[in-house]
Amino acid sequence: MAQFGFENDIQSLLKLDMPITNAPMARWQRKASASTSSATLSPGKSANISTTAKTPSKTPGKNKKCTPSKVGCDRFIPIRNGKQMDVASFLLSKENEPLDANNPIVENQKAWSVTLNGYDIEEAKILHLGGKPLNAPEGYQNNLKVLYSQGTPSSVKKTRYISSIPDRILDAPELRNDFYLNLLDWSSRNLLAVALHNNVYLWDATRGDITLLMKLDREEDYISSVSWTKEGNYLAIGTSDGKVQLWDVENQKRLRSMNSHTARVGSLSWNDYILSSASRSGHIHHHDVRVADHHIYTLSGHSQEVCGLKWSPDGRYLASGGNDNTVYVWPGMMEGSMSNESQSLHCWSEHQGAVKALAWCPWQPNILASGGGTSDRHIRIWNVNSGSCISSVDTQSQISSLVFAPNYKELVSGHGYAHNNVVIWRYPSLTKVAELAGHEDRVLNLALCPDGSTVATVAGDETVRLWKSFELDPIKKKTERMVKSTSSVIHQSIR
After folding, report:
1. Cβ partners under 8 Å of residue 416, min gap 6
2. Dihedrals φ, ψ of 390, to 5°?
3. How far apart are CA 276 and CA 299, in angstroms?
4. Which residues, at least 6 apart from 243, have a Cβ–Cβ distance to it below 8 Å?
5. How many CB atoms lie within 10 A of CB 220?
6. Phi-psi region of 440 (alpha: psi -120 to 50; beta: other; left: phi over 0)
7. In 3-state terms, what secondary structure has residue 86?
8. DSSP-based three-state secondary structure for 490
9. Going from the N-terminus, what domains does the chain have, and what CATH number goes with each?
10. Cα(449)–Cα(178) distance, integer angstroms
């Protein structure tokens, strides 16, 4: 109620067509009373002022004008009637309200503008900051716009979604939490091999079945490494007692057990029929699995345990990383060579920690990625042809595994202390694309599925997590299938 009373007082003050009882005396009235003693002022009545006074006897109207040069005039005071005050009050109250396009006043203003100027002023602004852009005149054609629209595609590039939640989680009880071991590998036949203490389990990613492939005889022994052949029908298994076993997965039968190392076999890698194995002694052995006398070659360079071993996709180079913080690149095996000595092509010692993480680039066979341990934490990209380090990035975390994802030409890294996560990097800029967090302990190994859409991670929290982060766009996937089918037809016709 107090608010309404205040508004009524304001409205009454704005209406000056009635006398104000409590108002102070006007200036001209004060001058008139000072100049003549006979002049008296009474509320509500006009005072009779002498013609000799400096102020006019009445307020000037329309017909009479008073300028400051004339004697008796000092300023002009206009008359505001009640209608003018009502309009002013209305305009003040409506000032902040939004304009209505259907308002007759707005329509009248637009009509007057068109009549007087020949066009609407609002549509003829030089800078039009709001609303839709002005339409070009009828018949106007921008040649540059036509040329650009014909030369560039109109489709907009879609952004890729990477889920931060794993697609599937598998339990891995009794997994050995050892940084230097390689306990996970994914075959080209979509079988995931996982070593749990002294057992090797196979998980069929297509059907979801789990199979126990083998178990070591002695309980104190354990599996230290696993590696599939390129065809995916044979699995090599390294053990803690220095043996390398070869298994036929289809028939679940052990083909042979090869003895040559004096310490545990922590890493394995295939190059056609040549199986390379590395042990804690620092030696790397080449095995020809076709012959009885399998041990054909020994590489000596590392002074401590070799925990990383990878053949390049074209079979020309073998990369090895060790606990001595070095990375070696060895030449490929020559047919018929039986020498026990070989000179390394490169030896890089830039890492300040153990080098277990190694990965060859599938689309650039001369590019090698390596990752250092807790004391180093760097990913380094090497050019094998020139022997130089192309780029490096500090990940701020221990690097346990690396793998290239060809679908989007990215690099994936698994980390231990202190982040225990998986990071996707854009290659070759090494800018971070996404972080996949979920493991409660350090990530030990990574493995990519055959179609490159999913990466598997195994960690010290005894879980295997599958991250579906590299699925191809359906249109791109269809195109690749057509290319593959065409190439297979051509290959068959040549044969």
Report:
1. 179, 374, 397, 398, 399, 400, 442, 443, 444
2. -75, -45
3. 10
4. 257, 258, 259, 261, 265
5. 8
6. alpha
7. helix
8. helix
9. 172-486 (2.130.10.10)
10. 23
CA dist 399 to 21, 53, 352, 395, 421, Å? Answer: 91, 102, 12, 8, 10
SS (H, E, C) 141-157: CCHHHHHHHHHCCCCCC
User: CA torsion, points 203, 204, 205, 210, in degrees to nearest 10?
Assistant: -40
Closest CA to 314 of 300, 294, 333: 333
Query: What order of strands is seen across the sheet that includes strand 283-288?
Result: 265-271, 274-279, 283-288, 295-300
pLDDT in tens, 80-99: 666 667 767 766 776 666 65
Establish whether the linkage from the previous residue to 34 is cis, with ω within 30° of 0: no
For residue 190, pLDDT over 80 is answered with yes
CA nearest to 63, candidates 85, 79, 45, 87:
79
Token representation of residue 82: 């009640």
- Please state the φ and ψ torsions of residue 32, each to the nearest 5 degrees: -65, -40
Q: What is the mean pLDDT of residues 53-68?
A: 48
pLDDT of residue 29: 74
Q: CB neighbours of 265 closer than 8 A, spacing ≥ 6?
A: 224, 225, 238, 239, 242, 243, 244, 277, 278, 279
Distance, in Å, from the CA atom of 445 to the CA atom of 412, rounded to the nearest integer, reads: 11
pTM more than 0.70: no
Closest CA to 32 of 44, 47, 17, 12: 47
Rounded Cα distance between 307 and 179, Å, is: 9
- Residue 469: name the closest of 418, 425, 415 by CA: 425
- Please state the rounded mean pLDDT for residues 148-162: 58
Partners of 258 in beta bridges: 244
